Amino acid sequence: MSNNESFIDEVTEEVRRERLFGYLKRYGWIGIAGVIALVGGAAYFEWDKSVKRADAEVYGDALLAAMDAPDAVARQKALAAVEGTGDRAALKMLLAAGEAFASEDAAARSEALAGLKAVAEDGSVSPVWRDLASLRWLIAPGAGHEPAARQAGLEALAAPGRAFRPLALEQLAFDKVAAGEREAALADFRALQASTEAPTGLRSRAGQMIVILGGEAPPSAQN
């Protein structure tokens, strides 16, 4: 009886083996194709990443070369010649606006303001660049914004979670100083000086403003 059982086991194992070989012959190509697709996909991903990185480096080099021009006018012209769309165009606009605001050319300043506003309203641009363009547009020298519109814009940028919240809060505090609202400004500067969101330089400026306004700076601002 044991010999029969052994024979049956051997036959069963042989049948299983034959079925396995049959499955491999019939469907094995699927596994091979899967491996090839996986390896090919990984290779394409690395290639695509490498191409994008190289392209970004070329664009960055072009911007740096433009910023190396000898004066503001030359830098603006060089930046205008650099082609880019989306976030790249936004970065170029922000750099060009900085040069325009540093010049005495009223037309260039007006064009820069329009460009910043366009970036701030462009849905194809990443939120961080739109927020920065909006902030630059709101606080640009000689922009001539109505106080209520400026305040509304800065308050939107100062909402929790926004990338430039501390800078917007600082501008709102400065506006309160200009409006003679000393106590409100002091409260804002104290909040900024204690904020973990604000960068070190901004917290230092807040501490200095507290002293200038006649308030008592926290110990960290006095050292």
Please provide a written account of the structure.
With 223 residues, this protein is an all-alpha fold. The chain has helices at residues 2-67, 72-80, 87-102, 106-120, 127-139, 147-157, 165-178, 182-193, 200-212, 219-222. Helix 3 (87-102) runs antiparallel to helix 4, helix 4 packs antiparallel against helix 5 and helix 8 (182-193) packs antiparallel against helix 9 (200-212). The chain is globular. The model has no long low-confidence stretch (mean pLDDT 79).
Essential attributes:
223 residues; mainly alpha; 10 helices; 0% strand; globular
Helices and strands, with pairings:
Blueprint: H1 2-67, H2 72-80, H3 87-102, H4 106-120, H5 127-139, H6 147-157, H7 165-178, H8 182-193, H9 200-212, H10 219-222
Helix pairs in contact: 1-2, 2-3, 3-4, 3-5, 4-5, 5-6, 6-7, 7-8, 8-9
Helix coverage percent: over 70%
Poorly predicted parts: none
- What distance lies between the first and last C-alpha atoms, to the nearest angstrom? 96 Å
**Could you describe the largest sheet, including whether it forms a barrel?**
none
Number of helices: 10
Total DSSP E strands = 0
Approximate strand percentage: under 5%
Q: Structural class, from secondary structure content?
A: mainly alpha
Sum up the overall morphology in one term: globular
Radius of gyration: 32 Å
H/E element order: HHHHHHHHHH
Question: How would you state the average pLDDT, rounded?
Answer: 79
